[in-house]
Write a structure and sequence with these properties.
- The structure is a single chain.
- The chain has 6 helices and 5 strands.
- It is an alpha+beta fold.
- A hairpin with a 2-residue loop joins strand 1 and strand 2.
């Protein structure tokens, strides 16, 4: 008997709801709407970084796919340069490999610095136009020490927590030794 009253009550509610609706055509219960996403505008800085990465990818010796793969590994291991500090944490030296894959040599420093910043790699100038720069003696594993001539990178070293620091430089002579003026006046 309770079942009968329950079914009757549900039927009555359905009838009332059906009769109380307006005379307009019913709307479908499922609607498909197309959402047009507004193209997000990129900041000028983001545009610059993307353009610089495109230029860098076109340079001989640059392996940008490897750079991004190593960067993802670096980020997965921890914040900032934690992957560069602990040699037992990873088998390869991620920061050195990452920087080597970028092909920094013979590239203007103004193009390299934003790329290093985008990879969260600290950097500093240790030599400019054959003049050593004042530097601190602290070690930051993963920091890139740049040497430039006419603001073009001619050599770099990636600091490591342990082991040797391998300096990479262009093949040509970078800073020729200053030629001493001839002080022998007897030949005149």
């Amino acid at each position: 008997m309770k079942l009968f009253f329950s079914v009757a009550a549900l039927g009555f509610i359905a009838f009332v709801v059906g009769c109380s609706s307006s005379d307009e055509s019913p709307t479908p219960t499922t609607m498909t709407t197309s959402v047009v996403a507004d193209p997000t505008e990129k900041s000028p800085e983001q545009e610059l970084i993307e353009n610089l990465w495109d230029q860098q990818a076109a340079r001989p010796g640059a392996d940008i796919e490897r750079v991004f793969s190593l960067y993802r590994k670096k980020v997965a291991l921890g914040p900032r340069n934690i992957a560069c500090w602990d040699p037992e944490m990873v088998k390869e030296d991620l920061c050195v490999e990452l920087v080597d894959a970028m092909a920094l040599l013979d590239v203007p420093a103004r193009e390299i610095i934003p790329l290093l910043d985008s990879l969260e790699l600290p950097w500093r100038f240790v030599g400019r136009d054959c003049e050593p720069q004042a530097i601190t003696l602290d070690i930051q594993a993963g920091r890139v020490n740049l040497e430039t001539i006419d603001d073009v990178v001619v050599a770099y070293t990636v600091e490591r927590a342990e082991g040797s620091w391998d300096r990479k430089a262009v093949d040509r002579e970078i800073c020729p030794e200053a030629v001493e003026p001839n002080s022998d006046l007897s030949n005149q």
